[in-house]
């Protein structure tokens, strides 16, 4: 049976209810989400809480006017005055008595007198202002985490040595290396083209052009994992390999380019392999008797101790390269009043962010090539 209806009346009834939307603007809200349920920073915090609570135990929940902390650490212990003037630097600070340890002991801790790094006193949450060009057009200082300077200081570059900075960008540690004024030749390399642009801008804004001549500095954008193809194996006195990592602090506060975003899941999972390959390249690049400094800015054991142990094992089995871990206890003793070092580390040194010393996280381990 057919029912005759008034089409005009029907259209008038539904006109206020239906809204016609073009197909390209329609979203099936029932199953298609326009944004992730958890942001990348939330995913990072969730990951850190689970992983680091198991790894660090009670240490994890604590996450526990400015002065040159390097000069303060080298100051004589006999000085009691809190506001005393730091005396002129000596050439080096030496330890007469060796400190016992499982690994090779570093009986002499030498700190370059030319590296300056200023921090505010504990409990002072003041921030340094962004650096501005001086009368010559150069920045008078470079802002970075104070703990990031420690791997450079611990590398202990001596006068006239050649150094490879295998993962140099964005340039903070490269500047610290050059500030030692001890390097005869520095090779700064980084695989990422965009990060290399940052490195070049950093060096240009802080250093006169005569210090960046081809005789003193070489800047390349090569895959550090394939350094053996460059043909510069066994030639460097010191190698710094500050590998890409999950950058714990950055991943907790920045959504842009966050390693914990879903689009970078495979990249995050492949980090330990990439780090191991980079450390193997560093061990190949350094000469016998030379030293390699491995560093990250994460608390992850998988990216720190595990990578060092795996690289040392592979280097010996597949490349015939043997190396030993250098004990950095004499070095860390100099800075225990400024940084909070994780206790009972089997391999390497780790700076934990703390409420009264909010630096890091930084992990670094020094290796000496034996053969």
TrEMBL record:
S-adenosyl-L-methionine binds at residues 167-173, 190, 223, 242. GO terms for cellular component: mitochondrial large ribosomal subunit. It is found in: Mitochondrion. GO terms for biological process: rRNA methylation. Keywords: Methyltransferase, Mitochondrion, RNA-binding, rRNA processing, S-adenosyl-L-methionine, Transferase, Transit peptide. Belongs to the class I-like SAM-binding methyltransferase superfamily. RsmB/NOP family. This is 5-cytosine rRNA methyltransferase NSUN4. The lineage of its organism: Eukaryota, Metazoa, Chordata, Craniata, Vertebrata.
